[in-house]
Design goal:
The protein has 223 residues and is an alpha/beta fold. The protein is built from 10 helices and 7 strands. The structure holds S-adenosylmethionine (SAM). S-adenosylmethionine binds next to helix 5.
């Protein structure tokens, strides 16, 4: 059983404010997600690790009619997402792991934002990426946002991240958070991430976005 980074209590309730503070450009990235995935004919989106539904929010605001399935193992995050989208019939939310979702149902696009860096590169990352690719039609676009880089790149980009944070944050809290990112999360190099994606059944990914340690990747399910 792989380790699951459950977001509970204060981490769940204060989540949205936390990401906006700590990921410069996060809202810009989210705002453009529907455009990035817009070329798919079927608008059947799988949002893996949807949390409170920040990605989903952008898709329900477009004029295109997306059918959206969000899945996340944290009941507290899903509860927030359910409240947020209770009026949307085109949004289905599930508590659980992707491996529990029926493999027969295929989606035409998927996202995996800020999830993979919580998983070790001991088979867990590959398993999750395979679980995504097995649920996509051939050629389906897949967007990821993840902390990426080898140790020295992460170290240097953490110094940059410190300079990009909003004013007025507590210095001790900044040090703790940056230390945690450096020592407790499981970032892999760009090269390794590309290998994992290809082994899981995706095309070589394109890095199209970067904000310090956070990189945005676009790939497709092999045809
Ligand atoms: C940092 S949050 C990202 C939430 C959302 N994607 C966003 O950008 O706002 C990470 C989420 O990954 C979920 N998670 C943890 N382990 C997971 C797994 N094995 N599969 C899918 N989601 C997972 C957590 O419950 C949490 O909601």
């Amino acid at each position: 059983m792989s380790k699951i980074e459950l977001f509970e209590n204060e981490r769940a309730s204060g989540y949205n404010q936390f990401v906006e503070t700590w990921i410069p450009g996060y809202n810009f990235f989210l705002d453009h997600l529907p455009n990035l995935l817009s070329e798919t004919e079927q608008k059947d989106l799988l949002v893996v690790g949807c949390g409170t539904g920040n990605e989903i929010e952008r898709f329900v605001q477009t004029t295109e009619h997306w059918k959206i399935t969000g899945i996340d193992p944290s009941p507290q995050m899903i509860t927030q997402a359910k409240e947020r989208f209770q009026d949307f019939e085109n949004v289905e939310l599930m508590t659980g792991l992707l491996c529990d979702l029926d493999k027969e149902k295929k989606f035409s696009a998927a996202t995996l934002l800020l999830v993979l860096h919580f998983m070790e590169d001991n088979g867990d990352k590959l398993r999750l990426l395979k679980d995504v690719s097995e649920r996509l039609v051939s050629g389906a676009p897949f967007v990821m946002l993840d902390i990426t880089g080898d140790k020295s790149q992460i170290k240097q980009n953490l110094n940059v991240l410190r300079l990009l944070l909003p004013d007025g944050l507590d210095e001790e809290q900044i040090d703790n958070s940056l230390n945690r990112i450096e020592n407790e999360l499981y970032a892999v190099s760009e090269q390794r991430l590309s290998e994992l994606l290809q082994e899981a059944g995706f095309e070589p990914p394109l890095r199209f976005f970067q904000s310090a340690i956070y990189m945005g990747w676009l790939t497709r399910r092999n045809g």
